[in-house]
Each structure stands twice: as C-alpha cells, then as structure tokens.
Amino acid sequence: MGFHADTAVEAVADGRYGATLQEGWDVVGNANGGYLLAIAARAMMAASGRPHPVTLSAHFLSPGRPGPLTIDCETIKEGRRFATLSATLASAERPLLRLLGGFADLGALEGPARIEEQPPELPPPDECPRVRAAPEGFPPAMMDRIDLRLHPEDAGFKAGRPSGRPLFRGWFRLLDEEPLDACALLLALDAFPPTIFNANLPVSWTPTVELTAHLRAIPAPGWLRCRFSTRFIAGGLMEEDGELWDSEGHFVAQSRQLALVPRGG
Q1: For the domain 3-105+123-260, what is the CATH code?
Q2: What are the C-alpha distances in Å from 167 to residues 50, 137, 193, 226, 231?
Q3: Statement: the pTM of the whole predicted model exceeds 0.85
Q4: Which helix (H) or strand (E) holds 185?
Q5: Acyl-CoA thioesterase-like C-terminal domain spans which residues (predicted)?
Q6: How far apart are CA 167 and CA 154, in angstroms?
Q7: Which pLDDT tens digit goes with each residue over 15-60?
C-alpha cells in the first residue's frame, strides 16, 4: 500500500464518500493532519468534478484513529472556473475535520507572474539526514511512510541541540517513486516537525487548530524543496508558514497553520 491507495475514497451516497484511515500515518497515535486533508480533498474533488484543490482550509475538531471514515460534501457555488465546497470528515459520526475549499483545474489557471522569494538553499538529499520513525514514538510512525530529509543545520533538535530558530528546511518525496499529485502536496505541507522544536522553548507537541493550504501548480516529478518558518509565538498559539518548490524550481504550494503551544513537562 502507498499514499495514493491509503487516501482513496469511494462514493457511497449523493455527496457522501467513504474511506479508511490506515495505520502508520500517525503522530503519537493520532493521524497526521496533512494525511486527513488529503483524504478529504479527494472526496471534495470527486464531488466538485474539478481535478485539483486550489485553496483548502480545515478546522481540526478531534484526533483521528485508524478505521472507517465518512466525508460529507456540499457544493456551495458552482462557477465557470471554480467550485466552492464545504465538507465534514468524520469517524463513527464524530467529526474530525470541517473544511471549506475551492476547486479548479490548476493547469487552466494563468496570468502574470512575480515571485519575490527563492527556493531554500539545500545540500543534495544524500547529504541531508533522513528522518525515520523511532520505537518510542518520536520521530513519529508516519516518517517511515515518506522520505523526508532535513537540512543539516536544522536537524540537531533530535539530539537535544535545537538551532535556536523556529525554522525547518528540507526535501520531501513519496516512497517507491509514487508521483506527487495535488493531494501529496497537502501531505507535504504538514509533514515536517513543528518549527517550535528548533526554538529553544519549553513546549511539547503542538496540536493544529486550523490549516489553510494554497496550491499553485502540479509539481514536476522528483523532490520537493520545503521551508517552514514561524514569526509569532504568543498567547499559547503559534503560526507556521510553509512553502513548497518542485524539482524544476517552480513554486507549487504554500500554507499557514495555527497551532496550540502547550507547555512542556
């Protein structure tokens, strides 16, 4: 089984889709948020009749555990280029995510371009340590379902040597040469460790409250260059901004996430 099979959905009624939350995509027992987003997006894409999510916002209501899922989709507006839908992803009738998204054909959207950022400077993937799952639960199990490599300057937190900057840079790809589709971009936007792990602050894991993803293009085959940074940690909350660039240097996706910052023990 791979990412595409593990995020598959099927229609079970008008506007309702079924899926299975598979084991191994978890962070300390709870399903990774990007994995949940990818499942929901596949159902919303099918309901919209459009091939790609362009913008998708999700509020996280409950943690997800392996087992059957339902995704109930409602079309709010059907336009010439965009369809806007809402959806609820639930497990045993318990809502896990509430989503709102815009869907279209990314390949058909065009206009003037101006890019004022550049892809992160990274050593080659073979010179960046791969993050692998550990028996004690950190790094989490899902790291053995993807190939994620961290910039050496950002990887010391695993040995108790955080860089002091709330920043992670690195490479991402799926295993077994699975192609990167739009839903894989959603997974990548939530796959890296929380930036606060490099900030020298007394915190534990940071549960997501809300995540918004903007997809700009379908990536070329190969590695994604990724950068995640935080500017504001205050009031028990933090924001995290993500950028993804494909193997040809094209900007393909961005995200903003708001997460709780519980104090570490």
Answers
A1: 2.40.160.210
A2: 34, 22, 10, 11, 9
A3: yes
A4: helix 182-188
A5: 125-261
A6: 7
A7: 999 999 999 999 888 999 999 999 999 999 999 999 999 999 999 9
